[in-house]
Amino acid sequence: MTTLTLAEEMEELSSAEDFLNFFHIPFDTKVVHVNRLHIMQRFHDYLQKAGDALPDADNAAALRTVYHSLLNRAYQDFVESDALTEKVFKVFKMQEPQSTFVPLEQLLGG
User: Fold this and answer.
1) What does the pLDDT look like over 9-18, one tens digit per residue?
2) Interatomic CA distance for residues 91 and 54, integer angstroms
3) How far is CA 17 from the centre of its chain?
4) I need a surface site. Which of 40, 54, 60, 103 has the fewest CB within 10 A?
5) Confidence category of residue 49, pLDDT binned at 50, 70, 90
6) Does the global pTM surpass 0.70?
7) Which residues contact 41 (CB under 8 A, 6 or more apart)?
8) Alpha helices in 57-103 (DSSP H)
9) 13-17, 20-24, 92-96, 106-110: range with lowest mean pLDDT
10) How far apart are alpha carbons 9 and 85 in whole angstroms?
């Protein structure tokens, strides 16, 4: 009988709900429905920030605990706030619309 590693188990997960269920995190389906991409991106961002501080892959129990904590934190960000406030994606981080001036002479080839 072969036992899957944590990474192999996670490869089978395909939705935010799958991840939340896998890590036994209770969730409101309305929150996840509206914010699924934001939650998963925030989870990814938290993992990236943790970087070298993450436990080694051979310490599955510790790694699972950290993943649970970071995913729960990502989910809670959107329970307590919203996508516009959290600004996870670049499009939300942009300031005022950008404008570029092109002189009429340049358009007319002059």
Assistant:
1) 999 999 999 9
2) 29
3) 13
4) 103
5) very high
6) yes
7) 88, 89
8) 60-80, 83-86, 90-93
9) 92-96
10) 33
